[in-house]
Amino acid sequence: MRGLPSEHNVIVVTAKGQPFAQGILLDNWRYGENLVYGPVAADPNYRWTENSGEAARRLKNYRAQSGRAGAQGKQRISRTDS
Hints:
Distance between the termini: 56 Å
Helix content: 25-40%
Radius of gyration: 18 Å
Strand order of the largest sheet: 1-2-3
Mean pLDDT: 80
């Protein structure tokens, strides 16, 4: 049910190359401001599916933006202890 009012998104963290089903779930929406976390496969309330296309799109955008921000950030950093 993507894009509907009942849509519920979370972050699943995995090690590089690790399957999605072995990841750790981070859910800040379920109980308001209280973070829920644990193994994604052990979530008793939801059956999560990976959206690798969306993850790839967001990672590509992040890399493009962080490259520009990194160059700008280096110009603003100055040492005060020298």
